[in-house]
Design a protein that fits this description.
Blueprint: H1 2-6, H2 12-25, H3 39-46, H4 55-65, E1 69-74, E2 81-86, E3 103-108, E4 112-115
Parallel strand pairs: 1-3
Antiparallel strand pairs: 1-2, 3-4
Helix pairs in contact: 2-4
């Protein structure tokens, strides 16, 4: 994502820390995406350079940057790919300095996210978004769950 946002991978560590800081600042919006363990444990892990990003970080990046992120992801067989859409979880006006073009990534080998770049131009502006299959709305797993006091 650093290459997409800054034109170089050299800012990947700063972008990682900005995304983790954002998750830490707005935990209730992202805790539902933790895959095992606690959100705090996940944050500690993600502060380490080299830790693999998850869907949680993609949602956080989409929200921080206020940009849709499309991920080309393999199904359980690893042979058929489909587009998944990660939209910002809430409005974040402080992101108004960023480009609003959507981002495209490929979930390569089920463990790494690679940039999908346009053959021409530096962004996806003016291009039609990928076609989604299946559910095209977000699901909030925290909806209708009573708050524990």
């Amino acid at each position: 994502m650093s290459k997409i946002i800054y034109g170089s991978e050299s800012s990947h560590e700063q972008l990682r820390q900005a995304v983790v800081d954002f998750v830490e600042k707005y935990p209730r919006h992202f805790e539902q995406y933790v895959d095992g363990g606690t959100l705090q444990d996940h944050i500690i892990c993600m502060r380490e350079n080299g830790a693999w990003g998850t869907q949680l970080e993609i949602y956080a990046a989409a929200t921080l940057l206020q940009r849709d992120i499309y991920v080309l992801s393999p199904d359980h067989s690893g042979k058929k790919y489909r587009w998944l859409l990660f939209t910002p979880r809430f409005s974040y006006p402080e992101a108004n300095t960023y480009d609003k073009c959507y981002i495209t990534l490929c979930h390569t080998n089920g463990n790494h996210y690679d940039r999908i770049a346009s053959k021409t131009g530096s962004c996806n502006c003016g291009r039609e978004a990928p076609v989604l299959s299946g559910i095209q709305t977000e699901v909030d797993l925290t909806e209708h769950i009573p708050e524990v006091v």
